[in-house]
Amino acid sequence: MPSIYRVSRDGQEPVVDVGSPDAIEGAIRAGNPxxxxxxxxxxxxxxxxxxxxxxxxxxKHPDGTVAVEPDPWPA
Length: 75
Fold this sequence. Notes:
Layout: E1 3-9, E2 12-18, H1 24-29, E3 34-42, E4 52-60, E5 66-70
Antiparallel strand pairs: 1-2, 1-3, 3-4, 4-5
């Protein structure tokens, strides 16, 4: 089931799509400090029956550290 992960900030551009959860932190490092929203978008239905769901959040701190907080979805 191929998925992309869409990283965005409320009302702000750019929206960044990455191919795996491992690439999320690298995409955030290029952005400004703040809270980012991550959605998983799949070509096949996810366990919920939908093709998109909230994957989690990412916080980039002013010192450049990044905290990735995935939602507790079943595998």
